[in-house]
Automatic annotation (TrEMBL):
Pfam (any one): Peripla_BP_3
Domain HTH lacI-type residues, every copy: 2-56
NCBIfam families documented for this protein: PRK10423.1
Name this polypeptide is given: Ribose operon repressor
Molecular functions (GO terms): DNA-binding transcription factor activity; transcription cis-regulatory region binding
PROSITE patterns recorded: HTH_LACI_1 (PS00356), HTH_LACI_2 (PS50932)
Annotated signal peptide: none
């Protein structure tokens, strides 16, 4: 493999001149530039990103730890992160934690050994990454995305899940429903807890009672929504409408309804949360609460770049505002 010294020797110039031509950071006459470019072409020379990163103490890479899940929400957020990295001239190294503490710590070590410039955390594990690992890389810029399941003193970007839960439930109430069920996510996760609390708040504000059997907790996955909806459909008295606290569970809930021989929304109305790409293509299209996933990714990269340049700046918590997306899975019960 050719080196910069080989290029310099063939072009008859110094290695610094070759560097200036390749990086285009100093004036070099057109004649010399042509000689260097010709030597580069002849030797099939490619600059070493590793050598450049060691010299500049900057790899132009960002690491991201994310929980593996069937929930499309994660993939859509990662897509937004990757796009923002590309637009900012960075590469993204993605590691899945598989929901496993040991793998989380191992993946973190891998990312840090690769000298990433900053780190994004989007994990559902209930404890922080190993302090032993992090202590070997002091002052590493980090941003927590979507939620912070453990004590974390850095930057956080998250959805206003409490408001989103209220919006979804209030929408059902405004449509005339009074017997409303909720399939909530795992209550050790802050967004799931807040969405459920939003449901309770809206029901209380409307003066509606909540049946104990109408509130179920699940796992934010397709199968969890299916199992929870099957339980609701086995009750002597069925709910008129259901707020599923994410769209993945709504997909599973749809399946349970159809297996029961019922129809959405004529027999039971459903509203979800997240507005995943699949939502408008479901039958019927799913009414849901939109999370700005692309904006979440864009803000995460923007905040991380800011943190990389301002390590001692005050930590920020940025909250994104959810909004209602009306489609066809909720009927007007008052008519």
């Amino acid at each position: 493999m050719a080196t910069m010294k080989d290029v310099a020797r063939l072009a008859g110039v110094s290695t610094s001149t070759v560097s200036h031509v390749i990086n285009n950071n100093r004036f070099v006459s057109e004649g010399i530039r042509a000689k260097v470019n010709e030597a580069v072409k002849t030797l099939n020379y490619a600059p070493s990103a590793l050598a450049r990163s060691l010299k500049m103490n900057c790899t132009r890479t960002i690491g991201m730890l994310v929980t593996t899940s069937n929930n499309p929400f994660y993939a859509e957020v990662v897509r937004g992160v990757e796009r923002s990295c590309y637009e900012q001239g960075y590469s993204l190294i993605l590691c899945n934690t598989e929901g496993d503490y040991e793998r989380m710590d191992s993946s973190l070590e891998t990312l840090l050994q690769k000298r990433v410039d900053g780190l994004l955390l989007m994990c559902t594990e209930s404890r922080a990454p190993s302090s032993e690992v992090l202590s070997r890389y002091p002052r590493l810029p980090m941003v927590m995305m979507d939620w912070s399941p453990f004590e974390y003193g850095g930057d956080i970007i998250q959805d206003n899940s409490l408001l989103g839960g209220e919006i979804a439930t209030t929408y059902l109430i405004d449509k005339g429903f009074t017997e409303i069920a909720c399939i909530a996510g795992p209550q050790d996760k802050l967004p799931a807890k807040h969405r459920l609390q939003g449901y309770y708040n809206a029901m209380q504000k409307a003066g509606l009672s909540v049946r104990k059997e109408f509130v179920l907790t699940s796992d934010f996955e397709f199968s969890g929504g299916l199992t929870a909806m099957e339980k609701l459909l086995s009750l002597p008295k069925l709910p008129q409408a259901v707020f599923t606290c994410n769209d993945a569970m709504a997909v599973g809930a749809y399946q349970a309804v159809y297996q029961k021989g019922l129809h959405i929304p004529s027999d039971i109305s459903i509203i979800g949360y997240d507005d995943i790409d699949l939502a408008p293509y479901m039958t019927p299209p799913l009414s849901t609460i939109h999370q700005p996933k692309d904006e979440l990714g864009k803000l995460a990269i923007s905040q991380l770049l800011h943190r990389m340049e301002n390590l001692d700046a005050k930590a920020n918590t940025l909250v994104l505002t959810p909004k209602l997306i009306e489609r066809s899975s909720v009927v007007d019960y008052k008519k």
